Prior knowledge:
Helices cover about 30% and strands about 20% of the residues. It is of the alpha+beta class. The strands form 5 sheets. A 7-stranded antiparallel beta sheet has the order 8-13-12-11-14-17-16, sandwiched between helices. Strands 1-5-4-3 form a 4-stranded antiparallel beta sheet. Strands 2-6 form a two-stranded antiparallel ribbon.
Amino acid sequence: MIDIIPSRSGKPASLSTSTKCKLSRFSYLRPEGNGLVLESPLSKRKIVFHDDHALSVVSLLSKSMTIGEIAGSLGPWNRETIREIVEIMAQCGFVVAVEGSGAEDNPALATWEFHDLLFQARSRLGRHRNPSGGTYRFLKEIQPLPLVKPVVSKDIIPLKEPDMDALEENDKPFSAVLEDRMSIREYSDTPLSVSELGELLFRSARIKYVQKGNEHGDVGFRPYPGGGAIHELEIYPLVKRCEGLDAGLYRYNPQERQLERMSDITAELESIIYYTAAAMAKPDAKDTIQVLLLITSRFPRLSWKYQSMAYATTLKGLGCLYQTLYLVATAMDLAPCAIGAGDSDLFAKATGIDYYTEPLIGEFVIGRPRE
């Protein structure tokens, strides 16, 4: 009827027939093999259901019910079996008493949304027994994506590379850059130049060198760290105003250190700029934003190696890239601002890039600061 994984120890929670219970707001069902699995980020266990009657108990507990009321709804089914199923679910943390103390009475838990706690619990060790880390589970099944995405356009704009020796001599001291770093949302009437954009991308995101791999594929090294040196992140500059560069959407090629023009600014891309300005809490910025860096993750390249932790890893990489962009922009006296939210579906529609192959995961505005 049900399997409990891992097997429980001790007696299940004792519930009277008059105790009102319901599913925890963190409990969820999903298919696995030939059964349905009940899980929760509050629990280290999962219950696999193989019986429709037992699943009916779970369904009825979507609202507050007593064991007696459940038994009444299920007709002749054994009341003691129902009690045992409910008590096991309560012991595992999937069901809570409507009145009385329990795990969900923790005030801190009230601040967690379901998807946030599930992400925390499943991407870290301790509350699951899933394989985790560099398992290479697709090694013999799927070819890994290449280190560098193929060129996307024949319209190429070479970018001038900065003199790194001169920068090492004349750049702001690192401590001054750290202290001065801040989000800037006011922009000059004079836009940044294509030379400055090229320097920012070169110093923040270029591929410095490649290490040839074996069956696991090549890895690369950039100014910011990336999980396993896989470097799955891509940058698409959406240019509204940039001296020496036409407005439109571009892709930054980190190996060739060039821009590849993809399109003019379409209605969908205008909407992305509009939503970015709203996320900055400055709706008027839609008219003053100079360049918006749209950052995607070639996620299958990362999940080809990592299991359980792949999406957490790509977000950590995004944070590293954000900070690197901030520090380089500060050293260059530019105006950087990371954005906390965006519309990934809109980007997929605007570009034709598949949502699951390369979703948009971050946005970063860059411009020349207002004097």
